[in-house]
Amino acid sequence: MEQYIIKGGNSLAGEVEIGGAKNAALAILAAAIMADDTVEIDKLPDVNDINVMLEAITAIGASVQRIDRHTVRINGSGITNINIEYDYIKKIRASYYLLGALLGKYKKSQVALPGGCNIGSRPIDQHLKGFRALGADVDIENGKIVAEAEALRGTHLYFDVVSVGATINVMMAAAMAEGVTIMENVAKEPHVVDVANFLNSMGANIRGAGTDVIKIRGVKKLHKSEYSIIPDQIEAGTFMFAAAVTKGDVTVTNVIPKHLESMIAKLIDIGCEVYESDDAVRVVAKRRPRCTQVKTLPYPGYPTDMQPQIGVALALAGGTSTITESIFENRFKYLDELARMGANIKVEGNSAIIRGVERFSGARVSAPDLRAGAALCIAGLAAEGITIVDDIVYIQRGYECFEEKLRSLGGIIERVSSEKEIQKFQLKVS
Ligand code: EPZ
Fold it and tell me: How many CB atoms lie within 10 A of CB 423?
């Protein structure tokens, strides 16, 4: 089992280029099969989740041609199977985007029901509500979602919960329904807009993505396209907070500053200097973070995927801070790991009361999920001594070249997989 081993104490400094947005790419890869033409997508992040989604698309008969690490050509004309096996859903929940894509294109689809995961139960009732509103029969049979429709017809739908996944999944199905669909109380994340832009580049007619109301005029066919994924605002935020935690000076390049506004506001709140240009943001942290209050919210609010990262900064801040996690019911597990490094945190329901400490001490910790794993690495970079992070397979699902990028900023971090390699690292850095 691979681990990261980290020697803390260096302030991160320098520039790091941000890759394509994982959560936009996963949905766009699913949507790409809706055309019977060749669709070329670039700026894909080269991470495990993307590779699993490409395997799932290949498994149903689409042709997938990897041009390079970040570019793929997909042609959905050869699809012979509308059944997505549990194996793929178990590996990545986002395979459920194939439900909306296949239902939109073929008016039928079968996808294994996704389970919960480390951050919460994550129901998909809003996805199913949307498909039913479009006229599909949707049943759960033997652990599978079976969706079928004579025809999909435009509808006026109000989501009970703001859901990124449901917004995207239903938008894909509605893109090829008959007539007009109006969706309200939708998610406005940058990756929702990216998927809408991608579908429109294939000939769909979607307006209003990024606002509270999305209007979709269904089309019969979608055609070829060449598309570039937007930069990953969560990867960018992760490196920005790494600067804040290590009192560093880091510039993230190839970003869209507008997508980072809520994170920039919080970085300034905790005492960082932030300088924006067209496609880069520089974060300078000259002193220990200040305490503050933060509540995770749907976009444009502070993102839940950035909650562990600010949690690490506040655990080192002067004073007492609070974090309220309003999106997922179980996203504080990393705080137990942080406590082993010396953090002083009390969780009460969906809030964490954080009494900042002067410093962390290195310890052996385990990554409970993707974003918390990245945050624990950042904590290790600030800690005194050596930190070992287990279960880094989570981190590799969503961060390309994570340790290489941290090393390029002066972080002392290596990937190891044996006690021997750990001892070798300890000798080297001692
Ligand atoms: C997406 O998950 C992201 N994943 C998550 O990122 C992200 O944390 C989340 O959006 C919120 O921004 C991908 O895009 C692949 P939701 P998703 O549906 O779509 C409830 C990462 O680290 N809900 O917006 O599953 C749900 O329980 C991952 O990259 C329902 O009740 O999130 C949650 O409380 C982690 N019924 C809330 O809505 C539904 O039908 C928001 O979930 C759907 C969701």
Answer: 11
Residue closest by Cα to atom 44 of ligand 1: 163
Instruction: Quote the CA–CA distance of 240 and 212 in Å, as a whole number.
Output: 29
| Cα distance between residue 78 and residue 98, in whole Å | 15
Residue 12 CA, distance from chain mean position: 23
Residue 282 CA from chain centroid, whole number = 22
Q: How many other CB atoms are found less than 10 A from the CB of residue 393?
A: 13
Sorted by sequence, the CB contacts under 8 Å of residue 339 that are 6+ apart come out as: 345
Give the residue, by CA position, lying nearest to ligand 1 atom 26: 122
Strand partners, 184: 158, 213
* Whether the model pTM is above 0.70: yes
CB atoms near residue 141 (< 10 Å) = 9
How remote is the CA of residue 234 from the centroid of ligand 1, in Å? 14
Assess whether 401 carries a catalytic annotation: no
Question: Which is nearest to 178 in space by CA: 145, 138, 205?
Answer: 205
The pLDDT tens digits for 189-226 are 999 999 999 999 999 999 999 999 999 999 999 999 99
Q: Of the residues 117, 272, 291, 401, which is catalytic?
A: 117
Q: Distance (Å, rounded) from C-alpha 424 to C-alpha 421?
A: 5
Q: Read off the pLDDT of residues 91-111 as tens digits, 9 standing for 90 and up.
A: 889 999 999 999 999 999 999
CA 293 to chain centre: 23
Which of 22, 23, 29, 140 should be mutated for ligand 1, with most atoms under 8 A from CB?
23
Please give the Cα distance from 162 to 165 (Å, whole number): 9
Distance from residue 279's CA to the centre of ligand 1 (Å): 27
116 pLDDT band, cuts 50/70/90, is low
